[in-house]
Amino acid sequence: MTDVGLRPRDRGGLGSLFEPRGVVVIGASTDPDKLGGAMAASLAGLGLPVALVNSRGGGGMFTSVREAADGSPVPLDLAVLCVPAAACAAVLEECADARVGAALICAGGFAEAGGDGVEHERRLREAASSTGIRLLGPNTSGFFVPASGLRASFVPGVAHLTAGSVAVVAASGGLNHALAFALQRQDVGVSLGVGIGAGIDVTAVDVLEHLAEDDRTTAIALHIETVSDGPALLAAVAKVSATKPVVALVVGEHDIGEFARSHTGALATSWRSTRSLLRQAGAVVVDDEDALVTAAATLAAVRLEPQSDPGAALVTGQAGPGLLVVDALHGGDVRVPDLSDKTRARLGELLPPMTYQANPVDTGRPGPAHADVIGAVAADAAIAVIGVYGLTEPVIDLPRVVASADLNGKAVVVGLDGPAEEVSDGRRTARSLGVPLVVGPRALSTALVALVEDARLASARRDATIAGAHGAAGIVADGVGWTEAQAKDLLDDLGIPTPSRAVCTTSEEGQAALARIDGPVAVKISDASVAHKSDRGGVHLAVTTAHAMTTAVDALRSIGAVEFLVEAMAPAGIDLVVGARRDPVFGPVVLVGVGGVATEVYADVAIASVPTSLPRLTALPGQLAAHALLDGFRGGPTVDREALARVLEALGDLLVANPHLDEIEINPLRAHARGLVALDAVIVSSHQPDEMADEQRKTHE
Amino acid sequence: MTDVGLRPRDRGGLGSLFEPRGVVVIGASTDPDKLGGAMAASLAGLGLPVALVNSRGGGGMFTSVREAADGSPVPLDLAVLCVPAAACAAVLEECADARVGAALICAGGFAEAGGDGVEHERRLREAASSTGIRLLGPNTSGFFVPASGLRASFVPGVAHLTAGSVAVVAASGGLNHALAFALQRQDVGVSLGVGIGAGIDVTAVDVLEHLAEDDRTTAIALHIETVSDGPALLAAVAKVSATKPVVALVVGEHDIGEFARSHTGALATSWRSTRSLLRQAGAVVVDDEDALVTAAATLAAVRLEPQSDPGAALVTGQAGPGLLVVDALHGGDVRVPDLSDKTRARLGELLPPMTYQANPVDTGRPGPAHADVIGAVAADAAIAVIGVYGLTEPVIDLPRVVASADLNGKAVVVGLDGPAEEVSDGRRTARSLGVPLVVGPRALSTALVALVEDARLASARRDATIAGAHGAAGIVADGVGWTEAQAKDLLDDLGIPTPSRAVCTTSEEGQAALARIDGPVAVKISDASVAHKSDRGGVHLAVTTAHAMTTAVDALRSIGAVEFLVEAMAPAGIDLVVGARRDPVFGPVVLVGVGGVATEVYADVAIASVPTSLPRLTALPGQLAAHALLDGFRGGPTVDREALARVLEALGDLLVANPHLDEIEINPLRAHARGLVALDAVIVSSHQPDEMADEQRKTHE
Does residue A700 belong to any structural domain of this protein? Predict the structure, then answer.
């Protein structure tokens, strides 16, 4: 056939890949043990034309893509390449001639294998780029769209997958399948499952953008190994999560370097940064693949209204499992509020004595009033979502009871436990009634935590008007070695409080500064080339007398000091570390931690991509494990979170406005009873600002 | 019938409860919705005589226990009481007259309900004690022994439970059932499942002791809510875990106070202490009920030889899931060692190029050589246990492949993923071949971590010869308010290094001490009644001159100091906190943490019950999240772990030898380049030692 162009809407998009009108398998085989045979078999169930190509022909196969295209009643939008790595680039070019719009390459043997593979990959990238064909792979087991029967995967079990509304977007083909099967084992169907593999063209970003427009998908399970384009990923997650929930699992908490690199062919990005920034972008971040499956399946069925702190309730038939759920809800930072007096009074009417009529509600073995009990809890204004846990019962069918309850618009998730047979029955009933159901206490707490987290992220998104670069945009930071005094002058310009101070060169200037500044002063060497001032004997603290000043100045001169800094000592308080730096993957970020070694040893740092909104920055320190330290811990100061947020904002703005700056860190930022003060600051820039910026600096000075 | 005594071996033991010759249900009913009806129905399948008693008779039921016993061909060893709380004590006495040896009470309405319940419980306790009947409950859903068909539970699903070798010992009846059902859903049978409930007679300790002798049981899943007798629990866990693995889940990480108390009628003990001490006693401690089930099921099938640091290998057909497993193994502190050159060479022969032939071994889709690949890894001396992960395959049946591999005596666990149907088939095959199998990457890593942890605990147990109280046994600590100097003198007696110091009352003594002690000194008020010396202006640091000494002494006198302490200042280093105290549940414990607020904010404290062995104490700091700080972090000192262990041992011995001491804490214990030194110590005793001890102290002084 001729004259059939790409469908316009496909150009650049993934329609040809996921919704082709026809498919061609190149390197097809009649041997099911070969890739080309497995693919042909897997695609046989597709209700669309599937053309098989093998250069040796035979078995009714075409000998070229062109021949197949000419013989096809529909355009062959998708090509599945089952040929060796060395042949892929050339075949892709043939495909372009035959008006193919998308291709899948499962094979390995490209850059990740080294040797000739590097050249094979270079040529493949070139072919993809020059032809405009959207390429999934190489090094993936493929993808599947169960609703259309499109199973472009060589894993035989995909025939069992059913259609549903959870999309799986996995870095790895193997994990794509593992996740889809885990969903299938819970009777949850899949809208699309994709393993990105090497991702030399189609990446998770492209698939997320495709899913934003995919009506079949109501939630996305995202698995991340490495990130190549951080800002694009964050933008895609932010876009999709505005309309459908994204649940993300990031691998690589621990050092799994060599194997990870062999698999992905790329350096793993920082696990902590990736998780923090995905969360900031709107993804519910989970810790393991079980939680990924549970959270995505639940969020595909139900989503809370955006709200900053939804309250959860538990109605349980058994106290012991209920304790596990409540313990895990607290661990997931979910509020389990008290029920109102009205609710308690109603529960008192509905339930026998000796049951626990607070939150959780421990009903004992469910009775005929169970739906009313759930309804009473749902009517409580403090409650946004309800978990209903119970063992399977022949007389009380929990999914049916929940479906019959008046939920007052509130969300509910059933947690069931029981023998396999009865749990399967419960699952089927729940599915048919549209009631979200999970199995076991842990899954129930995971589901509730995910619902609450998603609602909180949505609320933060609503509040997140990015104000753009502020005053700092006009401030240009010089690129040469900074003395402490210069760095602090810059902080002053940014509106960040610093101690009273004077740069001195003579003993007389030192005495004058001592007289002028209230209270004891610190006297420090001022030399950008001295990094560890204390270690070098360059810091004298608590100087209060003229005699002590003379002694300090003499001592500094004896270690070669020309200039020295006389500075008011700060009141006691809590030392924080704040900074802004350029993440190699995600770009400008700000971070906050508690000072001292704890930040590093416990890896307790909260991080946000900038620019962002002030409310987000205000909430940031709350992510620290040690956040209790900021709230008057043991008689210490209560840190002004908004003032702290403004410091972070200023640092972020500075970095965004000054591309030549690599990093600025205030360590420590002392939080004391009356506010914040920056006690030391380090600025790193790997290159000079350009001439114009330099001029601006001079003007500014 | 008459003259049939208790079987001698039952006296005190739980034979009558779990292996009765006959059963009597009191308060039996023909209505299956009533407890007495549900119990009668559940026990109907038992191949033993079950007598039904109802005071109103009818339906072939006896009207009294005595009548039932007289009419029974076998002794009715077990009575199941389905009567109201108020009637239980009297019925228990009737049971004793009828030679019943054990009883189960499911009902609530005792002390946990308050009001009359308190009196009902008091009378029940009295009856249990006076009759010697072993009583399970009240407030439990019962127990089951599937192998004998004994299902003394009102939960209908128990009919589905199959016989196996995992015993479940749960604080809660509901969780006992939830765990047993979770095992059933994984095709794993149960030897015994018990919910302890109120535990007024039979506790987890009794059941553990019973299980130590139970040949049907090869692993125990233990669920703990509260602990009444800590030492007895630890002793029972230590005893059982020597011969069969114990996996423990402790609920209550977060504050779930009121509901927990309503359920258990007791104050929850410290979650952290309970976990640490159970682990020390030999239990594999897990974080959630999914891990409890996976670990217990795996350890029921396979157990490693005791070894201090077993190496794990992973053979995976898919890289993505393999990365998740390896990441989690690192997170579980499991070593994934390199394979030997010999092993790698052998893998090179067996596997196609482009596979990853290190550890993990990423085979790509398994081929015919898969059993040999597993065998090659098993032959590697560095490997003690192998995880084999893969998606289900029609041609490669993973459990069968593993069963056919030459494992060289090494342990193996299969992790399977695939559609429900194929995974079920794999489970059945694995079960029939005796191959441990779990589903999914997370379960595989959980299983491997549990095997390694169990082997390490067994190794620690082997090395753990408790040396008993040492020198400290002879040291008696006085009970009145301690000055810092007195506390440090005691540390000297214990062989714990302290700074050079002198207690002074005059300025001249101060000057003499300054002259005698090397380097700068601290001058501090010495007054047991001043708790926060620094806050009161009672500490002057870095005194080096006679003038400064005079100033310091004058300043101390101005705040009322009579006695003051002149002390050498310690070299810089890392500040630790060590101590010994009496846990209200578990008795004497020692603890170690990193100093400063981190210990508290991050709850990062390692704890051990004492007396214990020096190797255990040497290993203790390794449990700290911040343990990297002790190993030359950022140029800091490397802490001598054995010296630290000796300090802990001395503190523990002191507490054990001095019953009137409540607590001794050294804070900080400074670790510097040349060793440890105690910079401050606090001793708390709530009462005086007795007269004799006081005399001993005087002699010692």
Answer: no
Are residue A296 and residue A160 in the same domain, yes or no? yes
pLDDT in tens, A180-236: 999 999 999 999 999 999 999 999 999 999 999 999 999 999 999 989 899 999 999
Give the integer Cα–Cα distance in Å for A420 and B626: 43
State the pairing for strand pair A219-224/A163-170.
parallel
- Is the Cβ–Cβ distance between B427 and B405 less than 8 Å? no
Q: Which CATH number is A581's domain given?
A: 3.30.470.20
Of the candidates A291, A319, A331, A389, the residue with the CA atom closest to the CA atom of residue B252? A331
DSSP conformational letter for A568: E
Q: Quick check: is A529 in a domain?
A: yes
Number of folded domains that form chain B: 5
- pLDDT-derived band at A254, boundaries 50, 70, 90: confident
- Amino acid letter, residue A494: L
Q: Which residues of chain A neighbour B255 with C-beta distances below 8 Å? A: 330
CB contact under 8 A, B597 and A633: yes
Q: Which B residues in the span 590-609 are in contact with A, Cβ-Cβ below 8 Å? A: 594, 596-598, 601-602, 604
Pair (A151, A135) in one structural domain: no
Read off the pLDDT of residues A605-652 as tens digits, 9 standing for 90 and up.
Answer: 899 999 999 999 999 999 998 898 899 887 889 999 999 999 999 999
Q: What would the pLDDT profile of B29-39 be if each residue is shown by its tens digit?
A: 999 889 999 99
B312-316 and B385-391 as β-strands: parallel, antiparallel, unpaired?
A: parallel
DSSP code of residue B586 = T
Q: Are B618 and B645 a contacting pair, CB within 8 Å?
A: yes
Q: Which residues of chain A from 428 to 467 reach within 8 Å of chain B, CB to CB?
A: 439-442
Residues in chain B with CB shorter than 8 Å from the CB of A151 are none
pLDDT tens digits, A61-84? 999 999 999 999 999 999 999 999
Cα–Cα distance measured from residue B402 to residue B406, given in angstroms and rounded to the nearest whole number: 8
In angstroms, how far is CA B467 from the centroid of its own chain?
23
Rounded to two decimals, what is the model's pTM?
Answer: 0.91
Please give the share of chain A, as a percent, with pLDDT higher than 70.
90
Which of B281, B301, B321 delimits the end of a domain?
B301
State whether B352 and B446 are in the same domain: yes
- Are A318 and A222 in a shared domain? no
A493 falls within a domain: no
Residues of B within 8 A of A182 (CB-CB) are 417, 440
Are residue A415 and residue A553 in the same domain, yes or no?
A: no
| Cα B330 versus chain centre, distance | 22
CA nearest to A446 within chain B = B288
Spatial distance between the Cα atoms of B235 and B286, rounded to a whole number of angstroms: 19
DSSP state string for B460-486:
HHHH-------GGGG-----S---HHH
Regarding whether A445 and A512 lie in a shared domain, the answer is no
d(Cα B167, Cα A319) in Å, to the nearest integer? 21
Nearest to B323 among A109, A251, A324 (CB): A251
Contact B417/A at CB under 8 A: yes
pLDDT of residue A480: 54
- Is this prediction's ipTM beyond 0.85? yes
d(CA B365, CA B395) in angstroms, rounded, equals 11
Do B256 and B231 belong together in one domain?
yes
Kindly state the average pLDDT of the residues A424-453: 97
* B672 and B640 within one domain: yes
Give the residue numbers spanning the domain of A669: 574-684
Q: What's B128's domain CATH number?
A: 3.40.50.720
Nearest chain A residue to B357 by CA: give it. A259
Domain closes at, from A524, A544, A568 = A568
Strand partners, A169: A194, A222
**pLDDT tens-digit readout, B618-659:** 999 999 988 988 998 878 899 999 999 999 999 999 999 888
Handedness of CA B408, B413, B419, B425 (dihedral sign): positive
